[in-house]
């Protein structure tokens, strides 16, 4: 405790008159303390903290989901809290609102002092705090009724995640307020009145909504792939080969899957993820796609494969080489006729030495399983296809064992930042983002990664619906 008090920094607040019983407290929090602190959080506390701390809806949703999907996820240290403005003060404020009394006491802060200082929100978004109070004041029955009243959003284990999904929709906040009003709960109605006040309407940073985009003036409607149902834009299969027979486990790939799922759902693309898929699955891939793609009126199909690889092939979980052109041939199925298809592959395509603290998606040994013959057989049968590779032929693709692969992380980031642009432009931004990363071997040598893409698309592909002006 003495060490903590010695290193706290003074902080003053406009908290009104202070009686003789009250005192200012000092906040001491440094980045190197975060890894020890975050392990004291239960799953529900992680979700509540992330809901309050991250103003951006997309970021908050991503951290909440990863905290639920991966019990070992470092929800604080992996997200560089110290880069946020007044992060230490906001951290303490969030601890107070989620009532983490024990941790506050260990930091030398009593609840009485915290309550006086944070009687009104100072660093946490006022509107986000009001939404959190709604979560705390709803009964289990009311929560269930609320989730059932918004069928476009799947029910969630935690109401905070459900709310974040609503906020990512166009007019999501209004939809949420309308559903809450139908509960006729006087406490909730009072909080809703505060939310609707203009004074706090700018305190929440919503991610860009799925609002329709105006069609570019130089493009006709025939030059753009149509989005038939904005609520069901597409279907995405994610195949993640984590444990490959005889190969090193692909640690960090689950981080990629979590981010991909949240990114695809942001664009109203439904996701089906598969782990440790054997070779036989790829043989039946076309049939499986036909079964699932017919479920809804989808307009685009994504197939994302993450594995070890060698030039022209990826490895299945049973250590069989699967030719990439053989995979593309399976996309030539009835349900995907004239549908834009996007194949994304995170895997090595050659041999570059391992870099310290990084893993590469390449195997130690490989059997080609008639890859050469298959490679030429199916090449000319696919149209309306975009293939994005994490690296060019002959080189390895890097994956951080804790945070995921360079390529997938950059792709999801660029999809969010450039959501209103066509997919080819997004891939171009992704290539630039990946190339900007590097690993220094010494003062004169750096290793970089160079993704590539090949496009057989015949039109522009936008993941947001386009208004036909």
UniProtKB/TrEMBL annotation:
<dbReference type="GO" id="GO:0006915">
    <property type="term" value="P:apoptotic process"/>
</dbReference>
<dbReference type="GO" id="GO:0004197">
    <property type="term" value="F:cysteine-type endopeptidase activity"/>
</dbReference>
<dbReference type="InterPro" id="IPR002138">
    <property type="entry name" value="Pept_C14_p10"/>
</dbReference>
<feature type="domain" description="Caspase family p20">
    <location>
        <begin position="232"/>
        <end position="352"/>
    </location>
</feature>
<dbReference type="InterPro" id="IPR015917">
    <property type="entry name" value="Pept_C14A"/>
</dbReference>
<dbReference type="GO" id="GO:0043525">
    <property type="term" value="P:positive regulation of neuron apoptotic process"/>
</dbReference>
<dbReference type="InterPro" id="IPR001309">
    <property type="entry name" value="Pept_C14_p20"/>
</dbReference>
<dbReference type="InterPro" id="IPR029030">
    <property type="entry name" value="Caspase-like_dom_sf"/>
</dbReference>
<comment type="similarity">
    <text>Belongs to the peptidase C14A family.</text>
</comment>
<dbReference type="InterPro" id="IPR011600">
    <property type="entry name" value="Pept_C14_caspase"/>
</dbReference>
<dbReference type="Pfam" id="PF00656">
    <property type="entry name" value="Peptidase_C14"/>
</dbReference>
<dbReference type="InterPro" id="IPR056259">
    <property type="entry name" value="Dredd_N"/>
</dbReference>
<dbReference type="Pfam" id="PF23725">
    <property type="entry name" value="Dredd_N"/>
</dbReference>
<dbReference type="GO" id="GO:0006508">
    <property type="term" value="P:proteolysis"/>
</dbReference>
<dbReference type="InterPro" id="IPR002398">
    <property type="entry name" value="Pept_C14"/>
</dbReference>
<feature type="domain" description="Caspase family p10">
    <location>
        <begin position="383"/>
        <end position="465"/>
    </location>
</feature>
<protein>
    <recommendedName>
        <fullName>Caspase-8</fullName>
    </recommendedName>
</protein>
<dbReference type="GO" id="GO:0005737">
    <property type="term" value="C:cytoplasm"/>
</dbReference>
């Amino acid at each position: 405790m003495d060490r903590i008090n010695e290193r706290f920094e003074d902080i003053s607040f406009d908290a009104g008159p202070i009686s003789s019983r009250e005192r200012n407290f000092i906040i001491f929090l440094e980045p190197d303390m975060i890894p020890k602190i975050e392990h004291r959080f239960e799953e529900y506390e992680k979700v509540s903290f992330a809901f309050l701390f991250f103003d951006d809806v997309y970021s908050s949703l991503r951290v909440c989901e990863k905290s639920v999907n991966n019990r070992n996820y470092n929800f604080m240290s992996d997200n560089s809290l110290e880069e946020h403005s007044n992060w230490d003060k906001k951290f303490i404020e969030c601890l107070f609102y989620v009532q983490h009394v024990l941790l506050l006491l260990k930091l030398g802060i009593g609840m009485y002092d915290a309550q006086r200082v944070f009687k009104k929100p100072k660093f946490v978004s006022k509107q986000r705090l009001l939404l959190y109070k709604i979560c705390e004041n709803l009964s289990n029955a009311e929560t269930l009724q609320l989730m059932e009243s918004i069928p476009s959003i799947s029910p969630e284990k935690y109401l905070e995640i459900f709310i974040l999904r609503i906020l990512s929709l166009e007019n999501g906040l209004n939809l949420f307020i309308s559903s809450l009003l139908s509960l006729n709960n006087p406490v909730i109605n009072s909080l809703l009145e505060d939310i609707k006040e203009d004074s706090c309407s700018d305190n929440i940073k919503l991610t860009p909504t799925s609002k329709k985009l105006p069609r570019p003036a130089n493009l006709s409607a025939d030059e753009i792939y149509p989005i038939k149902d904005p609520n069901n834009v597409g279907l995405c299969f994610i195949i993640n080969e984590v444990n490959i027979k005889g190969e090193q486990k692909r640690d960090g790939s689950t981080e990629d899957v979590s981010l991909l799922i949240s990114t695809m759902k942001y664009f109203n693309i439904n996701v089906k993820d598969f782990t440790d898929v054997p070779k036989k699955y790829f043989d039946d891939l076309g049939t499986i796609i036909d079964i699932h793609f017919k479920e809804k009126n989808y307009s685009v199909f994504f197939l994302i494969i993450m594995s070890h690889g060698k030039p022209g092939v990826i490895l299945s979980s049973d250590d069989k080489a699967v030719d990439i052109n053989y995979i593309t041939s399976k996309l030539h199925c009835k349900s995907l006729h004239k549908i834009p298809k996007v194949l994304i592959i995170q895997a090595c395509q050659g041999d570059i030495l391992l870099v310290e603290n990084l893993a590469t998606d390449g195997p130690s040994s490989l059997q080609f399983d008639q890859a050469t013959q298959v490679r030429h057989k199916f090449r000319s049968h696919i149209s309306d296809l975009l293939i994005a590779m994490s690296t060019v032929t002959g080189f390895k693709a890097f994956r951080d064992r804790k945070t995921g692969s360079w390529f997938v992380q950059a792709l999801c980031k660029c999809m969010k930042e450039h959501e209103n642009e066509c997919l080819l432009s997004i891939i171009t931004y992704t290539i630039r983002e990946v190339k900007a990363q590097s690993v220094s071997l010494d003062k004169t040598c750096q290793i970089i990664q160079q993704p590539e893409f090949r496009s057989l698309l015949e039109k522009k592909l936008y993941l947001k619906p386009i208004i036909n002006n």
